[in-house]
From TrEMBL:
<protein>
    <submittedName>
        <fullName>Uncharacterized protein</fullName>
    </submittedName>
</protein>
Length: 257
């Protein structure tokens, strides 16, 4: 019995989660804190995360009542989906910005791109100015570009797991890199409440293969863990990518009639 208990997932009590942990973690990413709009969205994501933590805890404690909080349970499912979309888009945007900077740095195009963004449009365009400033900073600080490479690598696994769930929820497909006809997701949007933390839990499957299960709390904790995340080795990344991209089991995904 004791060993079985130790095998259970461990979730921190909600009271132990600092209200600013998620935002603080995102702010450690290279180039993130310098982008006003990313910072604004991070704070919004953090506020909804705090709300969901409390709601998950409430549902977990009262789900077995004679009159369970059905309205709260329905709200939890709906908000969890929306939070996952927001968490994905925020990280996708940051990753896209980093990849653009790295590509321009490698090709020697930082100055040209910055000059293009700095052109006079006849009105003030805040985001163009911000991006130009970030490119100038990267041009002057090669160590920033190096840190972007590192942070992209450190966060790849967590982001890939998040992307898998987001694609299933939003597109009803399985996230498969390079696939022209992604397999149909199994029961997209279907989730159940995790018994240990109350968070919505999603199955990650590809055809008949169940890859894993993941809760919204897992996704949030992965973000909060970013400052401590280590740089994975080449072998670790290769193994993870293969694990997340099993062979197609749907004959239509291979182009068969």
């Amino acid at each position: 019995m004791h060993e079985e208990y130790n095998d259970r997932p461990r979730y921190r009590p909600v009271a132990e989660i600092g209200p600013g942990e998620l935002v603080d973690a995102l702010m450690t990413l290279a180039g993130f804190s310098e982008n006003t709009f990313l910072v604004m969205q991070a704070h919004q994501l953090g506020m909804v995360d705090n709300l969901l933590n409390a709601l998950e805890d409430e549902v977990m404690r009262n789900r077995a009542d004679d009159d369970p909080p059905r309205d709260s349970m329905a709200l939890l499912g709906a908000l969890s989906h929306m939070w996952i979309y927001a968490a994905y888009e925020l990280q996708r945007t940051w990753r896209q910005r980093c990849e653009e900077v790295i590509k321009l740095a490698d090709s020697g195009g930082l100055d040209l791109k910055a000059a293009h963004l700095e052109r006079d449009l006849g009105y003030q365009h805040y985001d163009r100015e911000l991006r130009a400033e970030q490119l100038r900073t990267a041009q002057q600080r090669p160590e920033l570009v190096a840190q972007m490479r590192t942070d992209l690598r450190r966060t790849e696994m967590g982001f890939t797991m998040l992307e898998f769930i987001r694609v299933a929820l939003a597109k009803h497909e399985v996230s498969k890199k390079g696939s022209k006809k992604p397999p149909i997701a199994f029961a997209p949007g279907l989730a159940r409440q995790n018994r240990y933390c109350g968070s919505m839990e999603y199955e990650m499957s590809n055809g008949g293969t169940i890859i894993d299960t993941i809760t919204r709390r897992d996704i949030a904790e992965t973000i909060r863990f970013i400052p401590e995340a280590e740089i994975p080795s080449d072998d670790a990344l290769a193994g993870f990518r293969a694990y997340m991209n099993p062979p197609d089991v749907d004959p239509f995904a291979r182009g068969r009639p």
